[in-house]
Every structure is written in C-alpha cells, then in structure tokens.
Amino acid sequence: MAPAGTSESVTLRLMWRAIRRTLTRGPVIVPLAGPPRSFALLAAPEALPGFERLTSGNGWRNEVNIARGSIAFARFRPVQKAAQIRGPVLLQAGERDGMVPPRAIETVTTRASHAELARYPIDHFGCYWPEHIDEVAGDQIEFLQRHTSAADPHRPKLFPTALRAQR
C-alpha cells in the first residue's frame, strides 16, 4: 500500500529511483509536495499550497533527497501498530485532510486502548493557521493537563523540577 496521497506506481518509481541512486551513492532529489498523482513524495491537493504558506519568505525549496530513508517512509504504517499504544493518545483529524485520511485516524482510535479523537473542519495544514490554531492547541493543552501531573499530584512529573525552572 502506498503512503497517503500517492499511487502505487509513483511509490514504486520513487523507491526504484532511490535504490538505484543509493547504489551509486548519489542524491535522489524529488519534489516534496505536489498535486495528486504527481511525482512528489507527498502528493495531495493541499500539500504544495500548505507547505508554501507555512514556509513563505524563508527560502524553502520544494525538494527532498530520498536516497536515504525513503524505504522506511514507504513502510510507515501507524495504523498497524496502534494496538501497541498503551498510554493515552490524542488523535486530531482534519475532516478535509487529503494527506492523512480521517478514516485511518478513526481506525487508530478504535485500536489504541486509550485513544481520544478530536475532529476539525480543516485540511492537513489547517491546524497551523490563525483561525484554527487556538482550538487545536487548546485541545492539546487540555489533553496534557488531564493526563499529566497537573491533573494528579501523585503521578510522576512530566518535567523534572530543574527542567521546569529553565522553561
């Protein structure tokens, strides 16, 4: 199965290109983000516009060297490992996310024993935009407060006192 937003043929071409270049020790430069069915590592409707908006003005280039790590990326299957999660986990799903399908997040929620799911009317990058960041980050803070020493004085501290003093 190909990573979300990519077709099997694109994944196979990327992997073949990476293997060939790895053997010759040269870089394998491909676009990081692009439209669906493109030759980009992350091919989804919001991929390129999202990265461009996040990185505007800082000289970001839409390229990545896939010679190293591309096989691990292609084998990344978090849904299959969800049942191994033992602690509390907050999953946040954008209802219009074309890069990480909400259905996959819902499956992780059912498989991880202490999972909580929060849904938002956003795409993959919506959590970074000013109109949504307060709600998304607020849910994260609330989750952490419920599951760390802030909620239970008998629970071990999240950060040792020395580290908290430096923050």
Question: Any low-confidence stretches, pLDDT <50, length ≥5?
Answer: 158-167
Structure classification: alpha/beta
CATH architecture call of the largest domain: 3-Layer(aba) Sandwich
Total helices: the number is 7
Give the strand order, joined by hyphens, for the main sheet. 1-4
Q: Span between N and C termini?
A: 43 Å
Radius of gyration: 19 Å
Full CATH superfamily name of the largest domain: Alpha/Beta hydrolase fold, catalytic domain
What is the multimeric organization of the chains shown? single chain
CATH class of the largest domain: Alpha Beta
The share of residues in extended strands comes to 5-15%
Q: What is the general shape?
A: globular
Q: Please tell me the total number of domains.
A: 2
What is the string of SSEs from the N terminus onward?
HEEEHEHHEHEHH
CATH topology of the largest domain: Rossmann fold
Give the helix level as a range of percent: 40-55%
Q: Profile the largest sheet.
A: 2 strands, antiparallel
Mean pLDDT rating: 82
Strand count: 6
Distinctive features:
disordered C terminus; about 170 residues; about 10% strand; single chain; 6 strands; alpha/beta; 7 helices; Rossmann fold; two-stranded antiparallel sheet
